[in-house]
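FAQ

Q: What does a record look like?
A: Structure on top, sequence underneath. For example:
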């Protein structure tokens, strides 16, 4: 029973649940980004390059055993058993990755901006607090000493402690 209790404790931790939610949302977002690339962005680019589908950009490394080339589409080449270099699919995946990375960058940028604004609103502002001086004069020998000093290093007189700044 100790193993099951320990596993339940591990599985119910906030970090693990957050990780699972993040992974699930990330997978769904990745699917949407992949669809955006495959179905919206790349077809016009494919037309510009002269191909009907951008994913059909490939190089035949070895003709198939079923049917010799040339092959019109990647699916046709793969069905024939040809060995192909699928650079169109690779470019699709790179564009999808860049879109996901850009979206994550923008999301993190917004979150950081909101975090900074909340921090500024909640944290006391340093510019509102009066600045403490660095030095003061010893009232006995008039030497310049540290503001926080409680004994003068020149005349060894005892001094009153410096007042603490008021909380804002």
């Amino acid at each position: 029973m100790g193993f099951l209790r320990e596993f339940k404790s591990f599985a119910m931790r906030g970090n693990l649940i957050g990780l699972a939610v993040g992974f699930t949302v990330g997978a769904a977002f990745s699917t949407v980004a992949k669809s955006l690339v495959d179905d919206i962005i790349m077809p016009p680019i494919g037309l510009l390059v002269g191909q009907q589908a951008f994913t059909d950009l490939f190089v035949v490394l070895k003709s198939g055993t079923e049917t010799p080339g040339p092959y019109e589409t990647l699916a046709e080449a793969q069905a024939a058993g040809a060995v192909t270099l699928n650079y169109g699919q690779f470019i699709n995946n790179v564009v999808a990755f860049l879109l996901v990375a850009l979206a994550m960058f923008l999301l993190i940028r917004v979150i950081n901006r909101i975090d900074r604004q909340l921090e500024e609103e909640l944290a006391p502002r340093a510019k509102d607090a009066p600045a403490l001086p660095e030095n003061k004069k010893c009232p006995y020998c008039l030497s310049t000493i540290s503001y926080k000093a409680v004994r003068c290093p020149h005349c060894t007189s005892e001094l009153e402690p410096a007042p603490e700044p008021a909380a804002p």
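Q: Is there anything notable about this one?
A: Strands lie at 59-62, 83-85, 135-137, 144-146.
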